[in-house]
Amino acid sequence: MADKATQAQNSVETAHNAVQSAEANPTDRQVAQAQRSLRHAQAAVDQALESSSNESAVTSSVNQLAEDQAAINGSASE
């Protein structure tokens, strides 16, 4: 089983892909899916921060997640 840092990275990557899809095709459904993916990724990152010894992997996930959250928030408000 993957460690929490790896799970967080995978969740953030999935969320990133969902955000890119929503930016390319900003329907209500795509934006809602991206927001769900971002919430899931945030929970995975939070768990990784609490339990992981791989700080660089978690930090990378935190940074990507923040960028994607900003991107979806910007497109959702347009």
Identify the notable features of this structure and list them briefly.
78 residues, 3 helices, single chain, mainly alpha
List the helices and strands and how they pair.
Layout (H helix, E strand, L loop, with lengths): L3 H21 L3 H24 L3 H22 L2
Helix pairs in contact: 1-2, 1-3, 2-3
Describe the structure.
With 78 residues, this protein is mostly helical. It has one domain (4-76). The protein has three helices and no strands. α1 (4-24) runs antiparallel to α2 and α1 (4-24) runs parallel beside α3. The mean pLDDT is 90.
**Rg, Cα atoms, Å:** 12 Å
Task: Estimate percent helicity.
Answer: over 70%
The count of helical stretches stands at 3
Largest sheet: none
The overall pLDDT, averaged over residues, is 90
A few lines on this structure:
This protein has 78 residues and is mainly α. Helix content is 86%, strand content 0%.
